[in-house]
């Protein structure tokens, strides 16, 4: 899986409210990483489903069959109690205090979006396009069982992505295609680049 998309553009689908306005046909044939519910609701055929929290499997147990990704990746996995997942999962360690992991078995980042960005980098992307990275309170769905504290975006998530952007430098081009995003460290992109 690591290096599988070398030299390609990868789109990452986050969970911000703007994802409701995304026409997935604009993604073309580029690889896609869908974070959490985006891999069930928005684009179940994404190449990669990335899940940050093991509890997500329990919360979505009855809907997991909707996902048809080639790879399912989670940070620091534990089997659900009393039932089995319908497909295999690749577990990667979490470098909680790192800004960018270059190790194939580890992801850095303070939120699922940042870890998915690190994963796209490890998969060899030369261009990464962010969708649904509003970086404000709220998701495009109401299924997130644990509400993110309002200040986490400003104090933790955005700084984590800013630090990752600085480390990425010119090694990979990252564009934010999220309208009116609070994340300003990547150039804005109104539509998916051709």
Tally of alpha and pi helices: 3
Strand content: 15-25%
Helix and strand composition category = alpha/beta
Dominant shape: globular
For the termini, the CA-CA separation is 25 Å
> Strand-and-helix sequence, N→C?
EEEHEEEHEHE
Overview of the structural elements:
It contains three helices and eight strands, in the order E-E-E-H-E-E-E-H-E-H-E. With 194 residues, it is of the alpha/beta class. An eight-stranded parallel sheet has the order 6-5-4-3-2-1-7-8, covered by helices on one side. Helix 1 (55-59) links the parallel strand 3 (48-51) and strand 4 (71-75). The model has no long low-confidence stretch (mean pLDDT 92).
List the helices and strands and how they pair.
Layout: E1 9-13, E2 32-35, E3 48-51, H1 55-59, E4 71-75, E5 90-95, E6 106-108, H2 112-122, E7 127-131, H3 152-168, E8 173-176
In short:
The chain contains 3 helices and 8 strands, in the order E-E-E-H-E-E-E-H-E-H-E. The protein is an alpha/beta fold and 194 residues long.
Which key terms come to mind for this protein?
194 residues, alpha/beta, 8-stranded parallel sheet, 19% strand, globular
């Amino acid at each position: 899986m690591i290096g599988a998309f070398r030299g390609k553009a990868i789109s990452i689908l986050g969970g911000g409210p703007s994802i409701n306005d995304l026409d997935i046909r604009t993604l073309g044939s580029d690889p896609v990483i869908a974070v959490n519910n985006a891999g069930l609701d928005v684009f179940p055929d994404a190449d990669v489903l990335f899940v940050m929290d093991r509890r997500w499997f329990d919360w979505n147990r009855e809907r997991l069959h909707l996902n048809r990704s080639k790879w399912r990746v989670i940070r620091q996995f534990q089997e659900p109690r009393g039932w089995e997942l319908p497909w295999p999962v690749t577990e990667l360690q979490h470098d909680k205090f790192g800004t960018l992991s270059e190790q194939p078995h580890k992801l850095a980042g303070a939120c699922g979006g940042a870890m998915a960005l690190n994963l796209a980098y490890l998969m060899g992307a030369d261009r990464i396009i962010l969708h649904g990275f509003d970086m404000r309170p709220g998701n495009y769905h109401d299924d997130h069982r644990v509400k993110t504290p309002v200040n986490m975006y400003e104090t933790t998530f955005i700084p984590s992505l800013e630090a990752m952007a600085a480390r990425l430098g010119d090694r990979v081009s990252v564009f934010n295609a999220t309208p009116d995003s609070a994340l300003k460290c990547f150039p804005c992109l109104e539509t998916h680049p051709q």
